[in-house]
Every structure is written in structure tokens, then in C-alpha cells.
């Protein structure tokens, strides 16, 4: 067993009659993703304006007390607070949705490697967070495809795109945070601004892909629940 591997459990741990409707969590996750797309667009516009202001300070056409500089700082602060707030709330709903998807998938899958708790918990484990959440989501998806039978939809490309964008987002976000802590001159401000813009740009396709994942996976599980004959009860597990 690898150091990061949690104990594996089976479907016996879950009451087969305890299917939990994912529609509410899915709907709110999608709405919050749309809100974050809108905020990312707002942040891009605000970031580009900030970049012009900083360049103006460097060229001497603006000074630190100029109303444009003050307005730019205040706008950036408000946008950052809104992004953080929606990111936290959206993250909570997204993780709750993932937990629900794993729980429902395990009801008829006998040997899934990831429990609902660990399908969420891996996002918070250093180092392992770079690949374990992807493995958990892939297992949930593959299991749901089998359970949905003829309505199952493979999504290798969708999952790969989601995780690639997620990794880029994490990487650029970490760089942005570090640069923002070291902003002591105009060049460092411009560097932090650049990576923040990259982060906001990546956010848009990331949320779009995640919306598609939420809609498709939720639809598959709802179909499997409403049509239990779509797949035999003796499902094979996924390692």
C-alpha cells in the first residue's frame, strides 16, 4: 500500500436504498461556475486597466496620489474580494457535488478504490493533490458510465482537459500569490499582474469544462437511478 493510500472499502458500507438526489448540488455548482466566469471576465478587464495605470506611473504620466491610481487600487481590491468569496462558496458546492457523485456511484459498484470522503479529501493533501483527485473523478465517471448503460458517455478528453486546466490554474495561482507578497517596485507589480491575468484567463475554460462535467455526470447518475435495469447489479470495480 502506498503511503497516501487510504483503506479501501466496499459497497457494503453504503445502504443500497440511500441514493441521494444530486440535482440541487449540481444546479448550484453550475450557477456558481457561471458567476465565477463573469468575475474572471471582470477581473481581466480590471487587471488590464491596472496594468495601464502601473505603466503610467512608470512613465511619469501619473503619480501615486492621482485619483485614477486610487480608483484602480480600490477596484482591484473589490474584485479580489468577490473572486475569493465566490471561489470559496463555489468550491464548497463543487466538493459536495463530487462527494455526492462518489456516494451514488458506490451504491452499485462493489470495489471502488475511492470513498466519498477521500474523493474530496485528496484535494487537501500536499503533493497527492496533483493527481489523486483526477484518479477519483475518473473512477466515478467510469463507474457511472457502466451504470448508465446505453446512456453512458465516456469523457476521456473532457476529464483530461479539466485536470490540465486545473493544474495550470493551481500553478499560476501559486506564482501569483508569491509575487503579490513581494511587490516592492513597479516591475514586481507588473509581474504579479501578468500572472493574475493568466490565472483569470485560464479560469474561464476551466469553469466551462467543469460545467459540462457536472451536467453530463449528473444526468448519467439520474438516468441510472431511474433505470436500474440499464446495468446488472454485479458491477465490476475499478482499481
Tell me about this structure:
With 239 residues, the chain is an all-alpha fold. It has one domain. It is 70% helix and 0% strand. The chain has six helices and no strands. It has helices at residues 23-59, 67-106, 116-121, 132-148, 156-181, 186-226. Helix 1 runs antiparallel to helix 6 (186-226) and helix 2 crosses helix 4 (132-148). The chain starts with 22 loop residues before the first helix and ends in a 13-residue tail after the last helix. Mean pLDDT is 87; it is low at 6-14 and 232-239.
Main beta sheet: none
H and E string: HHHHHH
* SS class: mainly alpha
Q: Tell me the distance between the termini.
A: 13 Å
How many E-type strands? 0
Strand content: under 5%
Number of helices: 6
Amino acid at each position: 500500500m502506498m503511503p497516501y493510500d487510504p483503506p479501501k472499502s466496499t459497497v457494503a458500507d453504503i445502504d443500497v436504498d440511500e441514493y441521494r438526489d444530486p440535482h440541487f448540488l449540481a444546479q448550484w455548482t453550475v450557477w456558481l461556475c457561471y458567476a465565477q466566469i463573469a468575475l474572471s471576465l471582470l477581473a481581466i478587464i480590471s487587471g488590464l486597466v491596472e496594468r495601464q495605470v502601473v505603466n503610467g506611473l512608470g512613465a511619469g504620466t501619473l503619480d501615486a496620489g492621482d485619483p485614477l491610481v486610487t480608483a484602480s487600487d480600490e477596484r482591484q481590491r473589490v474584485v479580489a474580494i468577490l473572486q475569493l468569496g465566490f471561489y470559496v462558496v463555489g468550491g464548497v458546492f463543487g466538493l459536495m457535488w463530487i462527494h455526492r457523485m462518489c456516494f451514488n456511484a458506490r451504491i452499485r459498484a462493489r470495489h471502488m478504490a475511492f470513498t466519498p470522503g477521500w474523493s474530496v479529501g485528496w484535494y487537501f493533501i500536499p503533493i497527492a493533490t496533483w493527481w489523486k483527485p483526477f484518479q477519483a473523478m475518473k473512477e466515478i465517471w467510469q463507474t457511472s458510465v457502466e451504470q448508465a448503460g446505453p446512456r453512458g458517455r465516456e469523457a476521456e478528453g473532457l476529464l483530461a482537459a479539466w485536470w490540465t486546466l486545473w493544474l495550470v490554474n493551481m500553478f499560476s495561482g501559486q506564482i501569483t500569490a508569491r509575487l503579490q507578497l513581494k511587490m516592492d517596485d513597479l516591475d514586481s507589480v507588473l509581474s504579479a499582474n501578468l500572472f493574475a491575468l493568466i490565472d483569470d484567463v485560464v479560469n474561464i475554460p476551466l469553469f466551462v469544462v467543469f460545467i459540462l462535467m457536472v451536467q453530463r455526470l449528473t444526468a448519467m447518475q439520474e438516468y441510472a437511478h431511474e433505470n436500474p435495469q440499464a446495468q446488472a447489479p454485479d458491477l465490476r470495480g475499478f482499481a
